[in-house]
Amino acid sequence: VKNKAPAEVQITAEQLLREAKERELELLPPPPQQKITDVEELNDYKLRKRKTFEDNIRKNRTVISNWIKYAQWEESLKEIHRARSIYERALDVDYRNVTLWLKYAEMEMKNRQVNHARNIWDRAITTLPRVNQFWYKYTYMEEMLGNVAGSRQVFERWMEWQPEEQAWHSYINFELRYKEVDRARSIYERYILFTLLVIVHPDVKNWIKYARFEEKHSYFAHARKVYERAVEFFGEEHMDEHLYVAFAKFEENQKEFERVRVIYKYALDRIPKQDAQNLFKNYTIFEKKFGDRRGIEDIIVSKRRFQYEEEVKANPHNYDAWFDYLRLVESDADAETVREVYERAIANIPPIQEKRHWKRYIYLWINYALYEELEAKASKRTRQVYQACIELIPHKKFTFAKIWLLYAQFEIRQKNLPLARRALGTSIGKCPKNKLFKGYIELELQLREFDRCRKLYEKFLEFAPENCTSWIKFAELETILGDIDRARAIYELAISQPRLDMPEVLWKSYIDFEIEQEEYEKTRNLYRRLLQRTQHVKVWISFAQFELSAGKEESLPRCRQIYEEANKAMRNCEEKEERVMLLESWKNFEEEFGTDATKERIVKLMPEKIKKRRKLQAEDGSDAGWEEYYDYIFPEDTANQPNLKLLAMAKLWKKQQQESEAAEMDPDKDIDESES
To answer: Organism's domain of life (predicted)?
Structure first.
């Protein structure tokens, strides 16, 4: 090379390889066809081809495809002996190659060399007995040749190896094609025997196929016997719903409906419920087709019962599941079954002695007792249930008033008043509660035992002196009985208590009591005593309305005087809204009953409502912006006079500003006015 300078365009090794790969894909022109005209050219061609095949075999001896191509080429030349020799040489190299045996046997069969083909199949199944394809091909060849006995003999040899399920069914189908039902039955028996002894195929479907085979050929007794043997073989440990569904459908086809019911019920009682969905479905369909209404309801109930059983087994403390289960059982089962389920339910005591864990559980006992009383009509058992429940509850930590009251009401229904009183007395002694006292008092009221009611109220108020409702009810009882002095004394005791839960209700009740008795002076004294304790605006308004409703001549001056006192008392009140509420009430009173002078005076007392802004602070002390709020400025307050004067001046300035803006917007109007 004269010019050794680098080329302008450089070619990399990667580019060379890529171009070589791309050119491989280019279609090469086919070689020219060679026409052989005489024997010498043919022999020369054969020699060259054989040399090529032999060279390939010598280079890659284990590549079986080279051997097969070589043998097929010799076969295409009708050189069967040479092809056979090549296959034999290949088998010496790899006798485990399945494709090699198949190609060898197919060549012999295509060229009608039947005995050679048999010889090859015999060698193949002897060498590789677990290759099912050899057996299928061999039996098929013998059957196509009409050699039924030979094909049967091959099947028998195959069965000795205990092959897979399909092999047995192929043998059975072979016998059925030639109407050999007895032989097919014997094969089934051998197959089932293998299943029993060797446990090669312990599968339900094999038994079902055998039974259907007998049924198809109208051997119904044999079919039933097969099903019975299958049920016995699998037992209760390995039960399968498919077997029982097939057995039931067989009996259904034979119109043996009672047998069908027995089979379904037997299976449903023993198979786990999560594995019996298909069984339930078929049983339901059967009952809909051939059963009555009762049968259909039974299967639906049994299905739901199984579901509930699974739920309570998974979580025995799932009381909602127990409630649903018991509701189902009560609607359908007998009393003993219901009692058994109730006993199982109440045995699951909450593990923690906290009332919130017992709230659902205690209703199991209540429902149990109500069932025994109302449904089973067993009063003795009902009493035992209540007593057992009361003994079970840890009364020192908590109790359930509902149980005690239900027990007492039950004893009253049984006309056993001493036991009812004893139960309620025990409850008050062990674990006093407001609800127990109220229930006991209500019971004695219904029995018109007023002395007992008084004693119970005394005990109740000793237990809970802050309970205003109890004081009010006690006083109302004495009022109904006509003992006004006792009622008044009770009210006096009540308002003298240092701590009350609803004092406003108690005072209102006491005031209403005195008003009903028309003791107006005592009512005024009560209001004055109440106002010494609280200056709430509602008390003042109520006092004023009482004076107004007194109905005497001096009622209006008294009412106006109360409003005056209230207004003076509330001048220093921080809650301005309450003072506004008082003035609104006073204004309404004057509008209805006052004169023009009093109306004008109250209007002057009404405050001005103004909008203000104040600064907000967050919890961490930082600024949170501003907020707007409404404030009230009362004319009476002398401290607020400058504020009112400033407010009036601000309003006047705002009015002047609005007038000047209107004049600037409409100058023509000003000219017209000046001309006029």
So the answer is: Eukaryota
Round to whole Å and give the CA distance between 396 and 358.
14
Instruction: Specify whether the CB–CB gap between 172 and 210 falls below 8 A.
Output: no
Residues 6+ apart with CB under 8 A from 14: none
Over the stretch 288-320, which tens digit does the pLDDT of each residue have? Answer: 676 666 665 666 667 677 777 778 888 888 888
pLDDT of residue 358 exceeding 80, the answer is yes
Calpha distance 358→39 (Å, rounded):
109
Instruction: Fill in the amino acid letter for 632.
Output: Y
8 Å CB contact between 57 and 67: yes
Q: Quick one: which of 535, 533, 534, 558 has its CA closest to 545?
A: 558
As a whole number of angstroms, the distance between CA 170 and CA 209 comes to 13
In percent, the amount of the chain with pLDDT more than 90 equals: 13
User: What's the Cα-to-Cα distance from 295 to each of 15, 258, 284, 393, rounded to whole Å?
Assistant: 84, 12, 9, 42
- From the list 314, 308, 311, 310, the residue with the least C-alpha distance to 326 is 308
Of the candidates 527, 449, 458, the one whose C-alpha atom is nearest the C-alpha of residue 486 is 458
Which residue is it, tokens 């087994």? 313
The single residue listed with the structure tokens 């059963």 is 291
Q: Where are the alpha helices (DSSP H) in 464-610?
A: 468-480, 484-495, 503-516, 520-533, 537-549, 555-569, 576-593, 596-605
SS (H, E, C) 311-335: HHHHCCCCHHHHHHHHHHHHHHCCH
**Quick one: tokens of 447?**
């029995």
pLDDT at 674: 42
Number of H helices and number of E strands within the chain?
Answer: 35, 2
Can you say how many angstroms the Cα of residue 126 is from the centroid of all Cα atoms in its chain? 62
Task: Give which of 572, 580, 640, 630 is closest to 605, Cα–Cα.
Answer: 580
* pLDDT digits 0-9 by tens, 123-156: 999 999 999 999 999 999 999 999 899 999 999 9
Question: Who's near 150: CB < 8 A, 6+ residues apart?
Answer: 142
Average pLDDT over residues 351-364: 87
Under 8 Å between Cβ of 268 and 281? no
Sorting pLDDT into bands at 50, 70 and 90, what band is 71?
very high
DSSP structure string for 432-484: --HHHHHHHHHHHHHTT-HHHHHHHHHHHHHH-TT-HHHHHHHHHHHHHTT-H
335 Cβ contact partners less than 8 Å away, ≥ 6 residues apart? 375, 376
Q: Count the neighbouring beta carbons within 10 Å of the beta carbon of residue 285.
A: 11
Q: pLDDT tens for residues 407-456?
A: 888 888 888 888 888 888 888 888 888 888 888 888 888 888 888 888 88
User: Is residue 365's pLDDT more than 80?
Assistant: yes
Q: What is the mean pLDDT of residues 377-391?
A: 89
Enumerate the domain spans of the chain.
465-534, 608-641
